[in-house]
Amino acid sequence: MPDRLSQLLGVLSLVATDRFRHSVEGSLGRAGVHAAALVHLDAYPGDSVQALADVLGVSQPAAVKVADRLGSDGLLERRPGPDHRTRALHLTAAGREAATRVLADRAAQLDGVLAVLDVDERRQLEPLLEKLVAGLADDRPGALTACRMCDRDTCCGVAQGCPLEHTTL
To answer: In principle, which of 75, 127, 143, 156 could form an S-S bond with 164, CB 3.0–4.6 Å?
Structure first.
């Protein structure tokens, strides 16, 4: 039987996800994995459709559809890949701007969730969340999936570094 902590975490996760999804999908005008595709490709330009499918946890044909939709929206372009057999996915300037908006919408919603905590409570929560995040993946593919919506500048651009850095060693 789950304990109260598990229940509280479940409620928090669900509501934070719902708020974030509603905000991001409203500004992007696309549902599903499109926002995560933008954020990932902003951080990893030139990934293949298969690499994107792996990160998003969708089939290769589904990733092709995501790329097609983002391309038709003027947010993504396909270029020759490194082996000239694959196509490299790159965001356009509009795609990079959309990825920035997605992350800003995400941050606003998450800041709203955290607004009930004072500065000291936030300082106490941060190392606990870092520990939880560090346990989410044991390898790079798992870390890329877990961090598919991560604002890497905010998360990794601090002295503590990425909680999933151990997956890249």
So the answer is: 143
